[in-house]
Amino acid sequence: MKSFYVTTPIYYVNDEPHLGHIYTTIAADVLARHQRMSGRDVFFLTGVDEHGQKVEQAAESRGVSPIELANMVVKRYRDLWPRFSISNDDFIRTTEDRHKKAVAEMWRRLDAAGAIYKGFYEDWYCVPCETYWTGTQLKDAEAWESKACPDCGRAVDQVKEESYFFRLGDYQEQLLAHIREHPDFIGPDSRRNEVLRFVEGGLRDLSISRTTFSWGISVPDDPKHVVYVWIDALTNYLTAAGFPDENMPHWPADIHLIGKDILRFHAVYWPCMLMAAGLPLPKRVFAHGWWTVEGKKMSKSKGNALKPDELLEQYDADVIRYFLLREVPFGHDGDFSFAAMKQRYNSELANDFGNLLNRSLSMLYKYRQGVLGISGNEEACDRALVADVEAMQRGVEEALEHQAFHDALEHINAVVRHGNRYVEENAPWSLAKTGDNERLDTVLYHLVETLRLVAIQISPFMPRKSEAMLEQILNEPFKTENISMRKHSGWGLLAVGHVCAKPSPVFPRMD
User: Fold this and answer.
1) pLDDT confidence of residue 301
2) pLDDT of residue 304
3) How far apart are CA 416 and CA 409, in angstroms?
4) What is the DSSP string of 83-111?
5) Which helix (DSSP H) or strand (DSSP E) does residue 225 occupy?
6) Which residues on neighbouring strands pair with residue 336, listed in sequence order?
7) CA distance 173 to 123
8) Spans of all domains in the chain
9) How far apart are CA 110 and CA 113, in angstroms?
10) pLDDT (tens digit, 9 = 90+) per residue, 467-491?
11) In which residue ranges of the chain is pLDDT below 70?
């Protein structure tokens, strides 16, 4: 069985989960569910990053120890993910012994490769971003006068301390060659071009240890140094895959899903570290965009940082999942508003999905007591609907291969719209009135079978809503986790004489 390994970033424990965390994790879950349906051996990883100076500072400000803060935030994530139907296979914490072992081994391999040396670091450091900056970079970003981080805009600190360095510059040409030879390594294309420009501008050796705080993993054989938090964090993808064991069946990762703000760490530092350690590179790194709320950047001070509980108070989790991946192309920035969510829900889910399901099963019960009859000779409109359903299946597969979630959903929506047109064009009520029973059976069969295959394709996006649809169609309890594309995706699998359940609204309209 072919494997598929998908990861989210590991989320910082200095703050609570928010919309951005939900977005990335839902996207990863959709990919994981789709690949499981396709019969692959899926490994889906998420988790938390517990080390670093900003976690230490956040804990101090709250009057607790770093591990106490981490434990509180970890519980929030663990409690939250089931509420959004997140199907992760592992949840990693960087304070775990298995991870400390992996980080120590990664350090030793880099050191054995001659990629680490000890020196002295004197420049600027952004604690919130955990990013190093030179004075030249601050000047180029017009941030010299304010001494502000070019990424987050917050104050940078001048740092002067003994440090170990990673010879990042030694891997510049090797990284450029890899990016050019593997055009799908970084997505979307705009981010790939951004990374190419950054690397072509020259890579400076990277400071990879700190001595001014202690909350982290100690450098092997030099405990006064703490491993730079990004080396610690990035190694988590290897830890969960079984590193440093030689047998790592899921490595290399098929895709790292990240926010665009951490692209450099994943598309520059991480592959160079892996090259130095003699390990395979991930197949793809995809950086998505950011969300604003009602046109404004999310922040605590503005009071508009959407919390998961606030979203779940107003909307079903599946509806949130659908909206976030439907509203904007993955990789672009998007704006969240409750009005936009309500409008999309009513127009696509209530009016289109719900309408097709309710009217089809209602007519099946009204005219055939819920029993599917024989599908007779197909007319051109029947064949066109079947062809559209089969094209949908191919289209969803291709779109998800490129993380084009909105395109995958559009393929599904197009079939739903086709199904509603098919009802109007064939008018089952008229066929029942004129006694054209053979044609009526054919039309009703095509509608119910279309709905079954639509429910299967939508299941990675809305697993619980899909279950509700399939339970009405199949007239039995059903778990989307049991869907197999090989067993369930062919046209015509519903048997003549099958009895569907009476319809019950899955997408009631919102006023």
Assistant:
1) 55
2) 65
3) 11
4) HTT---SEEEETTSHHHHHHHHHHHHHHH
5) strand 222-227
6) 293
7) 26
8) 3-288, 338-488
9) 5
10) 999 999 999 999 999 999 999 999 9
11) 141, 299-304
Q: What is the per-residue pLDDT for 396?
A: 98
Looking at residue 300, its pLDDT comes to 58
* Residue the block writes with tokens 């892996």: 274
> Right CATH number for 338-488 from 1.10.730.10, 2.60.120.280, 3.50.50.60, 3.40.190.10?
1.10.730.10
> CB neighbours (10 Å) of residue 446?
25
Verify cis geometry, omega within 30 degrees of 0, for the bond prior to 66: no
Q: Is 449 exposed, middle or buried (0-12, 13-18, 19+ CB in 10 A)?
A: buried
Q: In what order do the strands lie in the sheet with 90-93?
A: 90-93, 41-49, 3-12, 255-259, 285-288, 186-187
Tokens for 171, please give them. Answer: 């891997």
Q: How many whole angstroms from its chain centre is CA 129?
A: 21
3-state secondary structure of 297: strand
Assign domain 3-288 to its CATH superfamily.
HUPs (3.40.50.620)
Show the tokens assigned to 159.
């740092």
- Structure tokens that stand for 329 in this block: 């192309």
Identify the CA nearest to 328 among candidates 258, 263, 404: 404
Task: State how beta strands 222-227 and 218-219 pair.
Answer: antiparallel
Half-sphere exposure of 467 (CA within 13 A, CB side): 10
Alpha-carbon distance 160 to 396, whole Å?
A: 52
What is the pLDDT, as a whole number, of residue 126?
A: 84
Distance from C-alpha of 362 to C-alpha of 432, rounded to nearest angstrom: 13
pLDDT at position 299: 65
Closest Cα partner for 240 from 107, 101, 111, 112? Answer: 101
pLDDT of residue 302: 60
Q: Which residues does residue 312 pair with via DSSP β-bridges, in sequence order?
A: none
Residue 482's Cβ-count burial label (10 Å; 0-12, 13-18, 19+) is exposed
Q: Would strands 3-12 and 41-49 be described as parallel, antiparallel, or unpaired?
A: parallel
pTM given for the model: 0.93
Contact 23, 288 (CB under 8 A): yes
Between the CA of residue 187 and those of 160, 269, 271, 460, 469, what are the distances in Å?
36, 16, 15, 21, 34
HSE, side-chain direction, 13 A CA sphere, residue 463:
22
Collapsing DSSP states into helix, strand and coil, what is residue 3?
strand
Give the whole-angstrom CA distance, residue 238 versus residue 250. 9
Q: Crossing angle for the helix pair 380-401 and 405-426, nearest 10 degrees?
A: 170
Tokens describing residue 46: 């998420």
* Torsion angle of the four alpha carbons 360, 365, 371, 373, in this order, in degrees rounded to the nearest 10: -60
| Residues across the chain | 511
Element (DSSP H or E) covering residue 441: helix 437-458
Of the chain, the end-to-end C-alpha distance in Å amounts to 47
Q: For residues 378 and 177, what is the distance between their CA atoms, to the nearest angstrom?
A: 54
Structure-token pair, residue 276: 């130095």
- C-alpha span between 282 and 72 (Å, rounded): 31
